[in-house]
Amino acid sequence: DSFVGLSSLENLDLSNFGISFVEAGAFNGLVNWRNLNLNSNNIIELESKTFNQTSMLQDLDLSSNKLERIN
Hints:
Distance between the termini: 20 Å
Radius of gyration: 11 Å
Number of helices: 0
Structural class: mainly beta
Strand content: 15-25%
Largest sheet: 3 strands, parallel
Number of strands: 6
Order of helices and strands: EEEEEE
Helix content: under 10%
Shape: globular
Strand order of the largest sheet: 1-3-5
């Protein structure tokens, strides 16, 4: 729930932050976002519910990660 109160945010760039894990529901509250950039991190695994409440998301960049599975 880190993004609660930021409902008008449309673009989020979290590239090159060294992120290795993203919790399910981490992006709850971002109801109007369109673009999420998570490239060039160390993400190996994503939970299947990570993007459950992201119906407006159009562009998701996970390039240059070490993604092995989605649970």
